[in-house]
Amino acid sequence: MDEAGKTARGLQRCPCGSGDILDACCGPILGGRPAPTAERLMRSRYTAFALGDAGYLLRSWHASTRPARLELDADLRWLRLDILATIGGGPFDREGVVEFEAIHRDPLARGVLHERSRFVREGGQWFYLDGDVS
């Protein structure tokens, strides 16, 4: 992507639903800045799914549960993220849980992913550990 494309992308609303622009929200986290909380990591991972950034998803996944590869479905469009609950996951916690719904669309229908994700903080960095999908 050229510089103009990067600038235009950074000025769009962040896909995570915060209401802020990407460059002031999840953009810096996708670029390597540590997420301050488990919820912020969850939001940045949703944004990575929406933008098709498989590399970030793998980097933010804990090494003990990270898959070797990640194939994203190019036909799946992520439409909205709703955070339902958080447990722990603050800047001084070691663990956190974020429950969310992510609304998506594929060529045939709309769908909702409901997940209770677990996160761990190691070395000052939050990582996605795993999740229960229902």
UniProtKB/TrEMBL annotation:
Pfam families: YchJ_M-like
SUPFAM superfamilies the record matches: NTF2-like
Domain YchJ-like middle NTF2-like: 37-131
InterPro entries: NTF2-like_dom_sf, YchJ-like, YchJ-like_M
Stored Gene3D superfamilies: 3.10.450.50
Top-level taxon of origin: Bacteria
UniProt family annotation: Belongs to the UPF0225 family.
Name of this chain's protein: UPF0225 protein RL72_01388
